[in-house]
Amino acid sequence: MVLKKHRDLEASTEAKFTPAINTTTLRSASRPEPSGSTSNLNSINYNNEHITSEDELEIILSNIPQRTATPAVPQTPRRQTPQRSQNPKTSNAHFGLLTPPGSTSSNRIQKSVGKAVSKKKVSNLYDKLTTRRCHSWTADERRVLCVLKRFFAADILSFTAVLNKIFPKALVPFTTGMVNMQYTEIRAGKQCSVESDEVWSAVWDVSNFYTARQNFGSDLEKIEETASEIGMLLSSRLEDDLRNITYAESRKVALQNRPDKFREVPNAGKRMTGPRQAPPSPTIRQQSITEQASQPVARRRTMSLTAPAFIDGPAIRHAEIQPDGEVPTLLFRAFSDISAGVNGEEGFRAGQFMGRQNAVPPPLDPNDARFAWDASNHLSQSCEIASKIATPFVSLSPSLVWCVQRLYKMAGDEDSKKFAIIIGPLADAHTRLYKMSASMEWFAWGEIGQGAISTVIGRRYLENLAQASPAVGAVLRLDVLEKTTNMLKAREEFKAHPVQLDGRSGMAIGKICLLFGISFHSDQAVITELIFHILQGWAIAIDIEDTEALEQAFGTFIGQLEASDCSVVLASAISIMRPKMREAFYKAIQQAAQELLKENSTRPNQRRRAHRRVITVACEDEFIRYSVAVC
């Protein structure tokens, strides 16, 4: 019954509604089915009109195919154009760049930043900035750099190390290229900022070297202490370097000599790349070879900042320095108002320690490299080294006549030319004395105290004494020392026209000793040494066989001392002190005769056999035996 009602309902529905368009055809037209696939589950064939039984309905339902899974078809994703991200422009301060925006280094870095961002290589930007590190130079740093270049002599590596030590809080450590570039721009007068011109003017506008040095006393002390702390070879200059003076003067006419392209683009051209390449001076117009040859040599000479600022002097071997040798009883030093260091009756101080309030540091080990370097500069015969580089030594000479001749050869005010007599053992007790075996020159470390100075005599006093006493003038012969060029020629002149040792020359020796501060109370060794220097230095002819002449010389010598010393007017005092003076006088004669014999026998052009005889000289208390050469 139920089945019958169902069939009637289908028949009525089919009669009432008949679609005009086949739904199967419409479905297939809108989306074609793939080949080999069956009809959809919902696509039941409603045209089966002859269904008469329940069994037939079951058969029809069993013929309906089951739905199968549709295979996945690969599809290409839709291509989308990415939108370019608008990143904000990275500022210099974000990357730690403190270079002023207008400087050359800043422009180069900004170009690098823009190029990196345009290519979207932001990951490599940090590496590029690391390889092109820059530093913002402050006024204090530029001032210290200018002070270093004007008042000190060293290479650029030492300057860089000192700057890094003085300014340890700098964002980027100093490098040699950075220091080179900065000083080149300051020296060339490039208008990087107002402070750079002010710094240059403060250091270089004072033309007087010593006045400018006093203006920067605190900076100089700080630099010297820093260099000593880090062990850098840094020497003080005694005068301006000619290269720096040339550059300082050329800045005054920089605009007139600079071509238009340099005026418009100050940083045009390639910078110095090699360690020994000289940077072209931007203040000198590019000229032809003929025009350049006509310019002064000092104007055309340029030098790289990386080259050593000092001139290589003679190499000093450690074996040539004898610190433990026997110190002479007397040493001498000639000086004037332009001599290096501090000089005067109060004492002597080396140029490297000039202006310091604290004590001189202890001497270095002679085997140290710094000691050999300073000794090489100090003992160099080159005036370009000796007059420009300060050393920790004070020069001394064992020859009196050499120092007297130096008073005529050295520069300076005539009234300021003096020489000092120094007690060698006393000076060695206070400081350390060294001897250069090649040149026989002595030099003291640091300073010589006032206690070791016997007397200081000006050249004027020596000339006045020679004019007042003809005997003294005949012995000293200052005109010979003045006209001869060196000590060897002067001694040859003395030997060609000798002065005999007799009563007249003995009186002259007494007057000279009085001028040099000798008295009866002087040490016997000092008296002997001074008389020896007079006899040997001025080549006084000694005739040992003429005992009468020797006694006359001693009598006039002791008479000059007795006349000036009121403490020996009593006969008892004379009897006590006279033997002491006699022993000192004759011992000096013995040493002078032996030295003259040694000098004649070692000369190559005068080498011959010398006949020797022993001469006995009668004295009051003893006999003095010595050998002389009979020529």
UniProtKB/TrEMBL annotation:
Residues 327-441 form the DUF7587 domain. Coiled coil: none annotated. Residues 35-45, 101-110, 283-295 have a biased composition (Polar residues). Residues 75-84 have a biased composition (Low complexity). Residues 26-45, 64-113, 264-300 are annotated as: Disordered. It comes from the Eukaryota. Pfam families: DUF7587. This is DUF7587 domain-containing protein. It comes from Venturia nashicola.
